[in-house]
# Entry
Amino acid sequence: MAGTEHQDDETLTAFLDGELSPRDHGAVLERLGGDPGLRQRLEALQFSRQGLDAAFGAMLSVAPRADLEAMLDRALAQAPQPRRSAPIRSRIWQTWQPRLLAAAALIVVACLAGGLGYSLGGANAPKAAEGWHEAVAEYWALTTKATLALAPSPATRTQQLALAGDALGIPLTASAISLDGQSFRGAQLYEFNGKPLVQIAYLDPDYGPIAYCVIRNGKPGATSPTSAEIGGFNVVHWSGDGFGRMVIGRAPAGRLAEIAARLAGEAGQGA
# Structure
């Protein structure tokens, strides 16, 4: 096994996946016994994999296999085919299925956990009849405790809230969005049909991920907090001053109503 980091990572990954021959497996074990740096690298790879296992499980359960199969069918139809095309299609799907689904999951992870702006109104936008509440519920279904396992530092929290507040045109302060018993897990900026949409994530010790979402929709009038169930989640939504707001999660409706009342009291004062 060569000594560069890249080659070590490849071999260690195969070691973790049980893909090494008995001889190579033994060689890795022997080297681990005498190389503290290699042991640390193995532990780091194990840790990085553990944090994503639960999230990937939920994501792959809703991965668009039908869409991927349709795309594969179109590609095969346009390419010269041997007489036995059906077995070839099956072999191609078996070969690429894990990679395609993992790639789809990685895109979702990057959007949910990376603090990057992500558009819900582009080429793959929700249908026009779908509202922003439903769009949020669709991607929030992919969020697990593992997705929100790491809390941002105070400095990162301040930067995220500043970026989100600038996009919405209102100040977002840590004190205004803090919730008793809820651990802040990041503020991400999205877009729905050309309108800025901010998601502030929390991790409840009993009920898991909860999100407070704000969209600058420019709609006149105001509505009081209203409880509903959307996409299997309990939701409380309200609006006013050209903004729509929503709290979503698997917590009991009464608990979300309490959170919404606290946040609604801060509307226009930093939330």
Q: What stands out?
A: Residues 118-264 form a domain with the Phosphorylase Kinase; domain 1 fold (CATH 3.30.200.100). The chain has two domains: 54-113, 118-264. The chain is about 50% helix and 20% strand.
